[in-house]
Each structure stands twice: as C-alpha cells, then as structure tokens.
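ugh ok so i messed up the first submission bc i forgot one of the chains. this is the corrected input, ALL of the components this time, i swear. 415 residues overall. if the numbers dont match what u have on ur side tell me asap before i send this to the collaborators (the ones from the other lab, u know who)
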Amino acid sequence: MCENCGCSITGVSAPAPQRPHIHGDGHLAVRAPMIERTETVAVLTDLLAENDRIARHNRDHFGSHGVLAVNLMSSPGAGKTSLLERTIEELGAGMRIAVIEGDLATENDARRIRAKGVPAVQITTGNACHLDARMIHEALHTLALDGLDVLFIENVGNLVCPASFDLGQHLDVVLLSVPEGDDKPQKYPVMFRAADLVLLSKWDLLGVLPEFDPERAIASVQAVGSDVPVLPVSCRSRASLARWCDWLTGQLAQHRALRRDAAQEPAHERAAAATVEAR
Amino acid sequence: MRTLRRSRTVLNATMHEFAICRALLDQVGKVARDRQAERVTAIVVRIGPLAGVEPALLRSAYTLARAGTIAAEAQLTLETSAVRIRCLACGAESDVQSNHLGCPHCGHWRTRVLSGEELMLASVELVTNTETVGHV
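and heres the new structure output, hopefully the right one now
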C-alpha cells in the first residue's frame, strides 16, 4: 500500500514525503502537508459535574415524593447500622423509613435493617470506597418512595472518599465514635465540614475512655469552620436517642414546611398577578 | 497486564481519586471530540486543599486511567490553591490551614471559606490535525 496517501498502489517504493506519484486511476496524487494546530481550550467545569447532575436529579425525585434523604457517614465500625436499627425501633411507628445500604462486599447491613421491618436496598460497591449519585439513582429504581418520610443512605464506612460525592441527599450526618478520639474532625476536615449534624456515638463508652474530651471534640468541629450541633448518642440510652430522634423529626417538619411554601409560592404569585390584572 | 489489573483494583479500593480521574478523562474526551482533536497534549486541573482530593494520588491514578484514551500522552498539571477565609466577626480575610479555619486575627471560629474547595478542569491543550490528499 502507498505509504503516503493510503491508496492501493504498490509499484511506488516508498516515495519521499510529498513527492507526487501516479495513482492507479491515472490521477496524480500529491500529499498535502500536514497542518497541525495546537490550541488551549479553557474549560472551567467542576470535575464532578456529571455526578452533581445526577445528584440534583435524585434530589428532585426525593422532593417530588416529599421524602427527606439523610446521608449517614463515619469511619467503619462507628455504629451507623446500630444507630439505624435503634432509630427504627424508636421512630418506626410514626415515621415511614427506608434505607439504602452501601457496603464493599456483604448484604449483612441490609438484612439487619429488613429484620426491623423496614425496606432496605443493598448497594454492593465491590471495590469502590464510596457511594456516588449514579449508584443511588440505580438503587432508586428498586425502591418505592411513595408514602415514605425519611430515606437513610448509609454510606461506605470511610471518612475520606464519601465526602466528595453529592448523592442528592438533603442532610449529612457524621458519626464520630468515642473510641476514635476527639480530634477526628481536624484529621478529616472535608468530611466534618460537610456535616449538618455530628453525633458522638458509643457515648456509653465515655466512662472507660476518659481520654475522650467532649469539649475538645466540639472545639475540633468548630476548628474546621462548622457550627453544626454536636449530640452525644448511645444505642443503649433511650434518653440520648430521643435527642437525635427529636432533631430528625424537626428536620423532617422543616423540610415539609419548606416544600409547602415552595409549592404555594407560584399560586400566590399567580393570585397577585390576577389581582393586578383585574385592576 | 495482570499487574495492571491488580493495580487498578487496589486503586479502586483505596481511593476515590481514580473515580475522579475517570470523570476528568470523560470531560477531556468530550472537549476533544467537540473540537475534533487528534489528541490531547496537556490538561490543567485546579484542586483546592478542601476538595478532598490528594494531588499525588490523583497524579498516580491518572497515569493508569489515561491509557488507551485520547489523553494517553497528555501531561497533567495540578494547580493547587490556598484556603482563604473571611471572618464573619471582624471581616478580615486570611490564608489558613485546611484544619484550622478559625480567624487568625481575632480568633473567632465563624468564618466563610472564600476559596480552597475547587475541583475543576481548568484547560485542555489539543492538537487538531488537518490532512488532505490532493488529486490533481
């Protein structure tokens, strides 16, 4: 094959670049010089723009069903699933809850939630260290949102990766368990800055772990520029669970009220416009 | 190949930088396609310290993730920025560390982050090749 222009002529032995040669059809082929242009294009888009687009879609979907979506994050073993089990026991009668579970390999957590009589979808992330908006979107295809009040998303246990990915949730709750130490927020500023509420879990262990100073934990949350509430919680103490449940119930009421106002606003504006027109 | 596959698995398991890298290469690929580019020669990404992305890990993920893409030969430049805050109490603006976001002037902890959270594809350098075969 001709090395210059790719035609099937074979008689020409490696013509020098740009040397004209005769094609089989009698045409004179001339390889034009290559014009190579280099340009720099300014883009300035967020790297996670596609994830954020799907997250917005998820959030709209939750909104249209009046569901409050809460993303639970912590390091592995801080007590996310236990907290959910106890929350279902405390609030399950008056609040319709569902759970999306993220886990690297097992379905154990979803089984624990289902045992409490609440629908749970397990996302097994395989090797991925975090949930992203697309995984939640796919999970939503198998979860009916009708009639739900709160959807918990239990993220993969990890204080680094999940912080960067919006899932479409309305609220982020981060657990810091007493055995982890009171300086965790400053070690993981990105995660703790994302929190709308920090729960100091396994609070009942404070008696045997006097090194954990609750004041230092709160100062550490503030040091990363956050002024969110910090609540102690123990799955063995109904009083501490009640404070968390009150916070959650309050957030749901606020979420519903905001949605009602947003729904009424256009009607109100239409009425105002009609009044102006009538005048 | 086996080594490469294992490396990818490790990267997936241990860091979200690989996922972010794929998102980066998707965006670069789209820009290149829109411009009908032959190849990408340079990519500039802007990462703030509060973006939650480790530049060194992003760079090592990139060397694997770019293989076989239009950016296979592209040089990656990572521009990092400072964390800058404005104090809500005294109004001073300062550059601070990512885990000490309080105001260094008055000591108040209520501050607003002005920059340092960005994770952005800033620019792409493309080569467009126009080749014509003339029939005289």
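quick check: The CA atoms of residues 39 and 70 of chain B lie 5 Å apart. that seems consistent at least. The longest helix of chain B spans residues 17-34.
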